[in-house]
Amino acid sequence: MPGKRARRHSSQLSELERGLIMGMKTARWSTCRVTGQVDRSECAVRNCWEQWTQEVTHERKTGSVANRNTTRREDRSIVRQALVDPTVTRSTIRSDVGIGIVSQTISRHLAEANLKSKRPFRALSLTLEHRQLCLQWCQARSMWNVTDWQRVVFL
Fold first, then answer.
1. How far apart are CA 48 and CA 38, in angstroms?
2. Is the pTM of this model over 0.70?
3. Which residue of 55, 70, 113, 147 has the fewest CB atoms within a 10 Å radius of its CB?
4. Terminal C-alpha separation, the chain
5. How do residues 48-80 score in pLDDT, each as one tens digit?
6. Start and end of every Transposase Tc1-like domain (predicted)?
7. For residue 4, what are the CA distances in angstroms to 29, 30, 47, 87, 152?
8. CA dist., res. 5 & res. 8, Å (int)
9. Where do runs of H (alpha helix) occur along 14-127?
């Protein structure tokens, strides 16, 4: 089946296949030629070879998988709180959930739900009256020279 061949990755290679890939690539075989011999995708062969050249090993890493601290129900609760009140903080969400989780966990759950933090808009828009007052101030000082402006202190 041609579809299955493309789905095999370097993490699914047997030790024998890894050894064959290392031997053929060390003998300067092309990646295309190696894929034909081992019946694996080019991506798998390339990843296996890159891992070996970087780490000088062809064995798979045994990674540790972190245990989930929250249930799916608590995950939904975190996302729901952020949707209902976009200004809610992570510490507020943490206290509402009721279990001991770190704020990074909350951020990860919100990122998984495609919710991004938004900064509040700090500057207020000027009203018509404010704009007119600014214009009058500028017009009154339009003819000032450098010595006049040196006497003004801007904060």
1. 12
2. no
3. 147
4. 73
5. 888 878 776 555 556 655 677 788 888 888 888
6. 75-140
7. 24, 22, 18, 47, 76
8. 6
9. 15-26, 31-38, 42-55, 72-84, 90-97, 103-112
**Tokens describing residue 36:** 């034909």
Phi-psi category of residue 97: left, alpha or beta, with phi > 0 → left and psi -120 to 50 → alpha: alpha
- Characterize 94-130 residue by residue with b for buried, 16 or more Cβ atoms within 10 angstroms of its Cβ, and e for exposed: beebeeebeeebbbebbeeeeeeeeeeeeeeeeeeee
Rounded Cα distance between 146 and 91, Å, is 53
Secondary structure element (H or E) that encloses residue 140, with its range: helix 128-140
Q: What is the DSSP letter of 143?
A: T
CA distance 34 to 47: 13
Which SS3 state, helix, strand or coil, does residue 13 take?
coil
